[in-house]
Every structure is written in C-alpha cells, then in structure tokens.
Amino acid sequence: MSPGRTVGRVDLCHGHVILPRIAGVRITHIGGPTALIEVGGWRLLTDPTFDAAGQKYNFGWGTSSRKLVGPAIAASDLGAIDAVLLSHDHHEDNLDPAGRALLPSAGAVITTVSGARRLGGSARGLEPWATTQLEAAGKPTIEVTATPCRHGPPLSHPIVGDVIGFALRWDGQEHGVLWISGDTVLYDGLRRVADRLQVDTALIHLGGVRFPVTGPLRYTMTAREAVELCSLIRPRTTIPIHYEGWKHFREGREAIEREFASAPKEIRDSVRWLPIGSPEEV
Q: What is the model's pLDDT at position 210?
C-alpha cells in the first residue's frame, strides 16, 4: 500500500465511499525547518526555505546568519502544495524569499495571528491552542491545532515575536497526533503539550540557536532540552529537524546523537533520522 493513501469502504445503502482512515504518513525532510508531509492525499509543507546557499540574512537587533546549504529539493520540483504550516513569517530561516514566493500557490497558509495579518490574503492566523480544519473533497479532514512556542529566553517576546507549533489530528490515528514543535526553547508552555496532547510522531526543531551579540542565550532547543521534552510527551517517533544548514545552528547531528545516546532507552529508541531529500514512511 502506498504511503499516505486513504483506506475507504463502500456504503452499500447509499453507494458512496466513506474515507475515515489514513493508512500511512510520508515525510520528506528538505532541509532546516522545511519538511513535506504527505498524508491521506494531502501535501503539507512546513516553514518553506528554498533560497540557495551562501546568502546572509539579518534578523534584527544585531542578529544575523548565513545559509550554508541549499534545499535538497527545489521549490519548482515540489509539485502542488495543499497547505503551508508556517511557524512564523518574520525570520528568513523559516520563510526565505523563495519560500515566500511559493505561498500564493499553496491552497492554504496557517500561521500566527500577527503573521496572517502581515501576509494578508487568505492566510489563517491561530493563537496557541486554537484550531482550524483542512477540508477537501475526497480527502479526510485534518484538524490543525496551534501549540505554544517561546522563541528565546524569558522576556524576549517583544524582540523575537510570535511563533507557534502545529498538532495534526485526523480520524483513525491510533497512537496520537503528529506534532511539529516550531522554533522554541523548553519552557512551561511547551511542557503543557504533554498534558494536552497524546503525541505519536514529533518533529522537533533543534539546533540550539545562539548569536554572538547575545552570548549564551538560546533561541531554539538544545538536544538536552529535547530529551527532557521527550521524557514528558513520550512520542513513539521523534524526528529531529532544524539542526543543519545555517551558521547560527550551534548543535548539529553529532551533538544531538551524543545527547540522545545517554537518554533512557524508550527515548533513545524513538529517534528517527530522516535522510535529507528522500521521502520516508513513518
């Protein structure tokens, strides 16, 4: 059976097909925070970053970074995108110019409330724990719930702005939601995800982002924080993303693997590294 296919049954009384259950999920890690999620006929894209390597971006307040690696798949080779799940629109390592150019062709864009105002058009803005639905003929409905993020140290919100993660729920999930953390450090708002959601598969934004101008302060999770988070939410599958391809990412795969190697077996065994640019069924 092909990944992401919807299994249907025929209603013998009315002669139509009911589509209640999704048979598989396929994820392609394109690079950085960008992943293509294929499920039940839906094609969902997270945080589109498709600029070539080598460019420098200024994030404001003296912070900047350079893109070291280009996307494994060009935007022009993606095919149709039904929805973009955009954790935030105001940092180019989550939405660069090439990614921004892709947005008008997507069926829907779901992001923060402030981001939706900036993007305009039909972008949908969600506050943390608010929900919207993706609906289309012949496809199962996907419920999208925004989850909280804090993209830096305490009191940094006026500088770093609004960010959200996403929990995806559809009929037939046996072990919980598919959750994308978004750019965040570990804090009490994120810990509450464990109280409110059962998580099957977690895409965790790592990298331990730091900038010279702010010294030791972190703006995304370290591997150590990720281990603590996973001990709370206990996903069956943990997929690291947002750890390579940019100069300001301070913890790469080797550092993440070292930290998870000393984690409890249940957490250690949950980690799944996706090959960059190749679809994998999860």
A: 87
